[in-house]
Write a structure and sequence with these properties.
Bound molecules: pyridoxal-5'-phosphate
Number of strands: 12
Order of helices and strands: HHHEHEHEHEHEEEHHHEHEHEEHEH
Shape: globular
Strand order of the largest sheet: 1-7-6-5-4-2-3
Distance between the termini: 76 Å
Length: 390
């Protein structure tokens, strides 16, 4: 064998049976081969297990899928290149021309865009309500056959709590599937409810370190099976190296989520007591309008604390600029704390009435609490609130 051939066929190193690495290898390969054409044909006919091409399956991404399905308490999972890729592929896979989708003003902006603009172009209609309007949901479901009810909880950024059991009951009664974006709550929450499909951005709590993007759809086998070929065909595949990084992040998921939630709860109290703050949105606070519902549905109240500054946009600007440990950046759920003001949030396409329903004001600020020492974060907030008042 000439050296130019050898570099394309390097020596194989097999790990002997009974001798395993503690961390599974990254199968950083696009292609897999079988020993013979007959075996390849048997695989392609679905008569033998195996892997063939990473866009449709890969052992590293499969390991992540199996872990996520178990964490969320469902049978199966498909991962994708980002949270939005998981959401768009799920919406495309589950709807067809003439279908009707129910969604909410409080839904993450790109999800609303996908339902309104992308599905709209393919003849899928939608109704958009407030997540608080259960009577409206009942009326909308009675008015026309509905394929999907798409919602999230807590909502972004003002942490409204969807009544998951009421929504799933109404949807089930009307023959609609529920799709819940569970990114804010995390994989360990809401699994006990009758939700058909969970979608997640893995970019957030799963990775934890904000250095990799990914998304997942988690559901019973029959639904995942029905979506699998569309996911493969659309092709927004998660790279095996990204899957490895997310698997690594998940090892510390529970300790991160709980520590960050505990800091968030403490900072929410600090904000609620400050005169510059008109209102705090944190479901763990007894004063949150849906605290009792959140306490019934959730084990942790999450790491997002939003609040409205009395001084409106100028105060929000002074506050954000004065912070030292909170980066002015999008995203959430990572180990570093982040701040977003209403000027950085989308939603401009909403009508005036819908904007009122969204409860975002000029002085709304969203904090994503990280893993820094809570004393440092508390002092940073105190300094920035003084700046907001000046
Ligand atoms: C609730 C929610 N869903 C989905 C996404 C999209 O995730 P990604 O950025 O991984 O596409 C985000 C991102 O901020 C989000 O907040």
């Amino acid at each position: 064998m000439k050296k130019s051939t050898r570099v394309n066929h390097p020596p194989a190193v097999d790990v002997p049976a009974g001798n395993r690495p503690l961390v599974a290898p990254i199968y950083q390969t696009v292609k897999f081969e079988f020993d013979t054409l007959a075996d390849t044909e048997r695989y392609l006919r679905g008569e033998r297990p195996g892997f063939f091409y990473t866009r449709t399956s890969n052992p590293t991404t499969r390991q992540l899928e199996l872990l996520l399905a178990e964490l969320q308490g469902r049978e199966d999972c498909l991962v994708a290149a980002s949270g939005v890729a998981a959401i768009s592929q799920t919406l495309l896979a589950l709807t067809k021309q003439g279908d009707h989708v129910l969604c909410f003003v409080e839904t993450y902006n790109p999800s609303r865009y996908l339902i309104r603009r992308l599905l709209g172009r393919f003849g899928v209609n939608h109704t958009m309500l407030s997540i608080e309007d259960l009577a409206g949901v009942e009326r909308a479901l009675a008015a026309q056959p509905t394929r999907l009810v798409f919602f999230e909880s807590p909502t972004n950024p003002v942490t409204k709590i969807a009544d998951v059991s009421a929504l799933t009951r109404l949807a089930r009664g009307a023959g609609a599937l529920t799709v819940m974006d569970n990114t804010f709550a995390g994989f360990h929450q809401h699994g006990g409810f009758d939700v058909d499909v969970f979608v997640h951005s893995l970019t957030k709590y799963a990775s934890g370190t904000g250095d990799v993007m990914g998304g997942a759809v988690i559901a019973r086998s029959e639904l995942i099976r029905s979506m699998r070929s569309d996911f493969g065909a659309v092709g927004a595949t998660l790279d095996p190296h990204a899957a490895f990084l997310i698997l690594r992040g998940l090892k510390t998921y529970f300790v991160r989520y709980q520590a960050q939630s505990a800091s968030a709860a403490r900072l929410a109290v600090q904000l609620a007591e400050h005169p510059a703050v008109a209102r705090v949105h944190y479901p763990g606070l007894p004063g949150h309008p849906q605290h009792a519902l959140a306490a019934r549905q959730m084990t942790d109240f999450g790491t997002i604390v939003s609040f409205d500054l009395r001084g409106g946009a100028p105060a929000a600007r002074r506050f954000a600029d004065a912070l030292e440990f909170f980066a002015l950046a999008a995203s959430l759920g990572s180990t570093e704390s982040l701040v977003v003001t209403s000027q950085m949030m989308g939603g401009r396409e909403l009508s005036a009435q819908q904007q009122r329903m969204s409860a975002i004001t000029e002085g709304t600020v969203r904090l994503s609490i990280g893993l820094e020492d809570p004393d440092d974060l508390q002092q940073d907030l105190a300094r920035a609130l003084t700046a907001a008042e000046s």
